[in-house]
Structure formats: structure tokens, C-alpha cells
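Give me C-alpha cells for this 283-residue protein.
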Amino acid sequence: MQVIVTAVGPDNTGLVAPLVQTISAVGTNIAEIQMYDHDNERLFAMLMRASWPDHEGGLDDLRQALVAIGRTKGLSVRVWSPRPRPRLAICVTRQKQCPQTLLSAIADGSLRADAAVLIGNRPHLKALADEHGIPWHNIANDDGVPDNDVFVNLLDEYDVDYVVLARYMRILPASICWKYAGGRIINLHHGLLPGFPGARPYHDAHARRMLTYGATAHFIIPELDAGDQTIHQDTFTVNPGTTLKQIIKRGREDNEHRVLLEGVRRVVDGEVALRFHKVVATR
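Here you go.
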């Protein structure tokens, strides 16, 4: 059984030892440990990836023990193990193509997962959730600014395995990235990484007279659009003189949603995983 443990909270002394000792005491083999200490934010974060033989009740017992330590230390602790049919939180803003493609693939069986909840920072896609019979939550104010505490509570409430950012046009804070670290957050970036990061990759590529455009499905880590976490990319070419408006339209309608679907499929089917912030093939 593969298990990922994350612990996030105010920085302090004596946070690491009880967590490591507890997970070691049950016979696990710790394969990865990462720690983060941001002095300016006074934020402590820790990721452990471990494995040990399956046994009934083992994961629940471990979770209870580590969560109890978290309470005494002021840490938000999560203990997660991949399931054969994972539960997805699909996060959206305005654009329909990406979430619609994911939901259609779930419905026809080509994506072996379940949509647990649709979360938006705008009200535009509530009808899509209603159409597919999926719980809907708008977590933002009228300006589209999300309540990230509500966001985290919903992910826990719906027992989510993977968070899929399907053109969710908000940057996740580092604390959320760490809480669901280890390859649990998948993003669709509407440009080719690492060459064109940021919020306007179509514009940036067009300004450099590029004739090839694309999109990237990648794991999220606290470093924005870092480029080493690519799950899948695909491109399309245009003729010289193609307008930026035409390029964006083609990317949104023909390319982005296909890239995201293939990226999510690779993760759900266990073909790739994140190890030490690098994507590795697991088959």
C-alpha cells in the first residue's frame, strides 16, 4: 500500500519527530520525505511517501494516530492512499470545454474515476453540474476571489483523491499545494511549459511569432508553472498571419480539453506519479 502523509501548519520546534516515529513504528518503508519552512510566512509543511503491506484497518489506524499528533502540534494532517477508482474534484471558472470533456469521459467509462464535486469561483458552470447530477459549490465572492478555507473543507468533505484544475483561473496558495502534495493536484495550463508560463501564454507565444501552440497537463507544486511536472502535452500549428483570436479559439475548442483528459487518465490509470517533484513512469 502506497501512502502519502502531509502536515501543514505554523512553524515550530518538535514537529517532525513524532510524525516520522509514528509512521515508522507501524512497519512502513519511508521512500520520500520533503520539508518546507518559509520564514516569512512562518509556515511549516511536510510530505512523507511510504509503503507497507496491506492490512485491514491499518490506514484508518495510522490516520487517527497522525491526525491526533497534528491536533497537539497545530498541524493540518492528511493521510491518503490511491484508490482503484478515484474521486475527483473538478475546479472551474467560466470555460466549459475542459470540465465537459472530463464528465463525458467519466459517463462513457473511458475515464475510470468519479466526479465527486464541481467547485467554481464563478457561477457560470452550475448548469453543467446540474446536468450531470454532481454537487456544485461556488466558493468565491462577486469578484471571483475564492475562500480557500471553504475550498479545503469541501475537498475533505467530499473525500477527494485528486483535485483537477480544469481552467480554474486562480492560483492556489502554497499551503493548499502542500496539503494535497505528492501528485494530487492536476492542472491544465493553456500553453507549452516550460517555455510559456504565466497567465497569457497564447499572447506571449503570438508576440514571438510562434507558429506552434499547445497546452500542458501537469502536477501542481508550490512553485508556479515550474515545468518539471509535465504529465502530457500536445500542440497544433497555424499558418503565418493567423490572428491571436483565431489561435485562442482553436486552442480552447480543439486542444486544451484533450490534453487535460489524457493527463488525468494517465494519473487515474496509474501510469505516472510524482516523486520528489518529478514525474516518473510507474508502468
